[in-house]
Design brief:
By secondary structure, this protein is an alpha/beta fold. It is 18% helix and 27% strand. The chain folds into two domains: 243 residues, 3-Layer(aba) Sandwich (QueA-like); 79 residues, Thrombin, subunit H (Beta Barrel). The longest helix is centred in the last third of the chain and has 13 residues.
Length: 346
């Protein structure tokens, strides 16, 4: 299986640069994973495809304003420190630019001294171990100085930080949003719950690896990045109940999918758990828990389009993407949505 098998042509003007004013007014392509048939709807119509007893799984991670712009303390040269993973109260694994200026011992100043840091070590992959110095509460300092880490294909500056958060974002730790969830409003979630549908919240802190391209020709040789996840007892109980009763588990986003597939045993049963996952889902994978998926449109040759192809079949997915391009759907993080289902009778 080659990485190039997952390529498709995408005109640059179809990459959404700004979120819609009404989250739930995005377009929704419904893809029947068996027949390949597509139907064109609006996202708020998702309720017509959900059934009492279904379990909707959402990732409640919260994006941190992880991009810090500062200057070297000794030269005043501009530098960027991107927060990847918190190791203790003041120490982070980071990505830095330009790397050649930030060797161990180098010091950086942010916000005219409100925040400072020292480079402690260079890790194997080139990332930096950084110790921060500040007064007050870290989250407040970061909120004041940090910028939202928008994907590289978004060139517009975000006017409202909250538009790159889901309305149910709760636990800070992500370097990117679980973007399929951006289409939900609180009103829509209330409506779904009132239909007799369980909502299970899991947490997976999305890493920068989600944007990294697959650089090997043979898909099976790709090394997946690791991400931290948590499945609570409440979430595990709701997911298990749906499966035991013969109802569907519907994940919102590839991160929710990767979380529950990582947490499940071979029989599809989930126990409360937490840990790191580097699960790589591509065609040939047998899903243990997931039945249907709500997702956005993904980059060509990405691990995410491979995951979607594992669920709906590569031919069906690429045909659906071709249709999306022809119909001028909006792509990627702020773009439109797809619902991959086994029941497109509506």
């Amino acid at each position: 299986m080659k990485t190039s098998d997952f390529f498709y042509e995408l005109p640059e003007e179809l990459i959404a640069q700004d979120p819609l004013e009404d989250r739930s007014s995005s377009r929704l392509m419904v893809l029947d994973k068996d027949s390949g048939r597509v139907t064109h709807r609006v996202f708020k119509d998702i309720t017509e495809y959900l059934k009492p007893g279904d379990c909707l799984v959402l990732n409640n991670t919260k994006v941190i304003p992880a991009r810090l712009l500062g200057v070297k303390e000794d030269t005043g040269a501009a530098v960027e420190v991107f927060l990847l993973k918190r190791l203790d109260a003041n120490t982070w694994e980071t990505l830095v630019k330009p790397g050649k200026k930030l060797r161990p011992g180098a010091r950086v100043v942010f916000g005219e001294g409100l925040l400072r840091c020292e480079i402690k070590d260079v890790l194997e992959d080139g990332n930096r171990l950084v110790a921060f110095e500040f007064e007050g509460i870290w989250e407040e300092v970061l909120d004041k100085l940090g910028e939202m880490p928008l994907p590289p294909y978004i060139t517009h500056k975000l006017k409202d930080k909250n538009r790159y958060q889901t309305v149910y974002a709760k636990y800070e730790g992500s370097a990117a949003a679980p973007t399929a969830g951006l289409h939900f409003t609180n009103d829509l979630l209330d409506k779904i719950q009132n239909m007799g549908i369980d909502i299970a919240y899991v947490t997976l802190h999305v890493g920068l690896g989600t944007f990294r391209p697959v650089k090997v020709d043979d898909v099976t040789k790709h090394h997946m990045h690791s991400e931290y996840y948590i499945v609570s007892k409440d979430a595990a109980d709701k997911i298990n109940r749906a499966k035991e009763n013969g109802n569907r588990v519907i994940c919102v986003g590839t991160t929710s999918c990767r979380t529950i597939e990582s947490a499940a045993d071979e029989n599809g049963h989930i126990e409360p758990t937490e840990g790191d996952t580097s699960i790589f889902i591509y065609p040939g994978y047998k899903f243990k828990v997931l039945d249907c998926l709500i997702t956005n449109f993904h980059l060509p040759e990405s691990t995410l389009i491979m995951l979607v192809s594992a669920l709906a079949g590569k031919e069906n997915v690429l045909n659906a993407y071709k249709t999306a391009v022809e119909e001028k759907y909006r792509f990627f993080s702020f773009g439109d949505a797809m619902f991959i289902t086994d029941d497109d009778l509506k």
